[in-house]
Amino acid sequence: MALVPAGELAAREIARWPNESPEYREARTALLAEEIELRRHLERVAEQRRALPPGPLVDGDYRFAGENGPTSFAELFGDKDTLVVYTYMFGPQRERPCPMCTSLLSAWDGEVLDLQQRVAFAVTARSPIEKLVAFKKERGWQHIPLYSDTDQAFSRDYHALADDGGDIPQFMVFTRRDGTIRLFWGGEMGEASADPGQDPRGAPDLMPLWTILDSTPEGRGADWYPSLTY
């Protein structure tokens, strides 16, 4: 189906703000056309992602320590056919977790119950489960499901463990079809594919924090990051 040109759609929006100047309106309508194109591009990318061929088999015997006891990777799916996994930068070498990951998970905590209506969701980290749960209580998280990658095999195989023993955040989606578990999609944007002057990050950005700050004149800034405490 042919789409109406973005510029034409932008011109159809007739809402005007109090006291806006002609110069502002001209620039804002041009920006609106770009925002429409961005929306369309995001949908094209999502369609392309959904059309991926079957991904690689997951054949490792991965075991985790959960808040309610030990569990296998297959059990993380529960009664769902799709599993979303985030690897939290909170390895045993860290006294405190990554502030950026923590900010992200704080935003997601309120979405977990909604997510679990459609998919299974798990957050893994390499620290002992007791350490993870203690921080969960400190942060006031109610719903984030935490799992300790006790032998670090999953973290190693799925690129959440750096060569120097540090943590790498990963966002991945797995499927279980007819009993067969596969990686459906995982983020692959890192240092090698980062643009000049920008931190490595995927698209669309998973952090609501940056989405909001990108809408401001100051933007996200070049030297500010979230903190664990204020």
Could you describe the 3D structure shown?
The chain is α/β, with parallel strands linked by helices and 230 residues long. It contains seven helices and seven strands. It has helices spanning 6-12, 22-50, 99-109, 112-115, 129-139, 153-157, 208-213, and strands at 63-66, 69-72, 82-87, 120-125, 146-148, 170-177, 180-186. Strands 2-1-5-4-3-6-7 form a seven-stranded mixed beta sheet. The longest helix is centred in the first third of the chain and has 29 residues, at 22-50. The termini are far apart.
Reconstruct the topology from this structure:
Blueprint: H1 6-12, H2 22-50, E1 63-66, E2 69-72, E3 82-87, H3 99-109, H4 112-115, E4 120-125, H5 129-139, E5 146-148, H6 153-157, E6 170-177, E7 180-186, H7 208-213
Parallel strand pairs: 3-4, 4-5
Antiparallel strand pairs: 1-2, 1-5, 3-6, 6-7
Key structural traits:
230 residues, alpha/beta
Q: Give the C-alpha Rg.
A: 21 Å
| Total of DSSP H or I helical runs spanning 4+ residues | 7
Biggest β-sheet description: 7 strands, mixed
- The number of distinct β-strands equals 7
Q: Which spans have pLDDT < 50 for at least 5 consecutive residues?
A: none
Order of helices and strands: HHEEEHHEHEHEEH
Indicate the percent of residues in helices.
25-40%
Which strand order spans the largest sheet, edge to edge or round the barrel? 2-1-5-4-3-6-7
Termini gap: 51 Å
Mean pLDDT: 94
- Return the structural class: alpha/beta
Shape: globular
Percentage of β-strand residues: 15-25%
